[in-house]
Design brief:
5 helices, mainly alpha
């Protein structure tokens, strides 16, 4: 397989960092809040002020309004993620073509230009819903990755979102 480019490695590492951050979000938010509080203490009071993280009660913020600038920042964020995922898909297609090229007796597809050994991709426009096969595929794929899916009917029922309607 062709090694990943530096750009692709950087994108995948960034997404991995985001994934890891989400798993440790409460701890990192508490440490960040303490850091910000300490930085906001005036220099002349730093020796006499001690910042202690609030562990109890836990404050749960329920947002009822957003400033318009938040929406704009989300659009910018999503556009960046779309670019990253498009780069990942392009890289995956290249890897898939390499794997396909290694198959000796592979079936060839008839195209308008004749027989082709190039992997063909068909794009379909769909409406994604929260419940359905694609969600179940994602759920079961994650369970497989976590070694929590053994192929039994019980495991399928546990991980299938469609069955929980």
């Amino acid at each position: 397989m062709t090694p990943l480019s530096d750009d692709m490695t950087r994108v995948l590492n960034e997404l991995l960092e985001i994934r890891n951050w989400t798993f440790h979000n409460p701890q990192s938010r508490m440490v960040a809040a303490k850091e910000i509080a300490e930085k906001n203490v005036p220099d002349k009071l730093k020796e006499s002020v001690k910042i202690v993280p609030q562990l109890n009660p836990v404050i749960i913020e329920k947002v009822d309004k957003y400033e318009l600038i938040i929406l704009a920042s989300l659009i910018i964020h999503v556009e960046k993620r779309i670019e990253q995922f498009e780069a990942i898909i392009k890289n995956m297609k290249s890897d898939y073509q390499e794997m396909y090229n290694c198959i000796e007796d592979k079936p060839l597809l008839m195209t308008s230009h004749g027989l082709s050994s190039k992997v063909q991709y068909i794009e379909r426009t769909i409406t994604r819903s929260l419940i359905g096969d694609q969600t179940d595929i994602a759920q079961i794929s994650m369970a497989i990755q976590k070694s929590k899916y053994d192929g039994t009917e019980e495991a399928f029922k546990e991980w299938s979102v469609s069955l929980k309607k």
